[in-house]
């Protein structure tokens, strides 16, 4: 059984598209929305789609923890609310789950943006290099992991930011597998410029590795 866990906060504009793309999910699977106190129609949209909704303290770390605790699946697929899996994703997931060493590994999708600009293609290429050289996929690439391995690692930590980096670092390069299948994320966050947002992201990551508390970094991230 597969549980898709999606943290939400005022995600009404993009959530219908994200949920629609999950229509091809395997029989018996479930979707768990872990909401951090949305003030828009996020929860109503999820409920209208027959999706389970749990509430949690605001912040991706706490919300993902709550979603994972509520999930009933043997496999967990964590996904951002503004990320859409391209058609055929369920076959890619099934192939991973069926492999002999699957229970001891985790997988992530190829980063893509819903923007046709050259700047978007350059960023996608840079993310691919980051994943290849440093084994650092981010949460907007999704994370497929067995529930047993997730629990053995201690799961997500209640961080306001960098919860994804924290978990994949504990997984380590040996247990991470990159999928060629794309996860298409909204480019809305880059509306103030690809260079500016990318520089801010890099600054946040550098501060995290320097030991700055994620709660403080979150104020810079915006």
Low-pLDDT residue spans: none
Question: In the CATH hierarchy, what is the class?
Answer: Alpha Beta
Which secondary-structure class do the elements indicate?
alpha/beta
Distance from first to last alpha carbon = 36 Å
Identify the CATH homologous superfamily: Spore Coat Polysaccharide Biosynthesis Protein SpsA, Chain A
Biggest beta-sheet profile? 8 strands, mixed
Strand order of the largest sheet: 3-2-1-4-7-6-8-5
Could you estimate the helical fraction of the residues in percent? 40-55%
- The CATH topology label is Spore Coat Polysaccharide Biosynthesis Protein SpsA, Chain A
Radius of gyration: 16 Å
Number of domains: 1
Mean pLDDT: 95
> SSE string, helix = H, strand = E?
EHEHEHEEHEHEHHEHH
Written overview of the protein:
- The chain is α/β, with parallel strands linked by helices.
- The protein has one domain: Spore Coat Polysaccharide Biosynthesis Protein SpsA, Chain A (Alpha-Beta Complex), CATH 3.90.550.
- The chain contains 9 helices and 8 strands.
- The chain has an 8-stranded mixed sheet with strand order 3-2-1-4-7-6-8-5.
- α2 links the parallel β2 and β3.
- It is globular.
- The termini are far apart.
- The mean pLDDT is 95.
In short:
With about 220 residues, the chain is of the alpha/beta class. It has nine helices and eight strands.
Keywords, separated by commas or semicolons:
9 helices; 222 residues; Spore Coat Polysaccharide Biosynthesis Protein SpsA, Chain A; alpha/beta; eight-stranded mixed beta sheet; single chain; 21% strand
């Amino acid at each position: 059984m597969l549980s898709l866990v999606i943290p939400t906060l005022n995600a009404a504009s993009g959530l219908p598209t994200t949920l629609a793309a999950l229509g091809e999910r395997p029989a018996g699977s479930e979707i768990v929305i872990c909401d951090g106190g949305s003030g828009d129609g996020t929860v109503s949209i999820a409920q209208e789609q027959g999706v389970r909704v749990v509430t949690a303290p605001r912040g991706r770390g706490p919300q993902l923890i709550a979603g994972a605790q509520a999930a009933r699946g043997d496999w967990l697929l964590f996904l951002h609310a503004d990320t859409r899996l391209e058609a055929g994703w369920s076959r890619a997931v099934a192939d991973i789950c069926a492999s002999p060493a699957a229970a001891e590994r985790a997988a992530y999708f190829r980063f893509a943006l819903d923007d046709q600009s050259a700047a978007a293609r350059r960023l996608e290429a840079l993310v691919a290099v980051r994943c290849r050289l440093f084994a650092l996929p981010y949460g907007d690439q999704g994370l497929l992991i067995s529930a047993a391995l997730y629990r053995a690692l201690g799961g997500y930590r209640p961080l306001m930011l960098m919860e994804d980096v924290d978990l994949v670092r504990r997984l380590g390069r040996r247990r991470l597998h990159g999928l060629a299948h794309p996860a298409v994320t909204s480019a809305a966050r880059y509306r103030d410029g690809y260079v500016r947002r990318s520089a801010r992201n890099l600054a946040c990551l550098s501060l995290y590795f320097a030991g700055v508390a994620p709660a403080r970094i979150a104020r810079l991230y915006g």
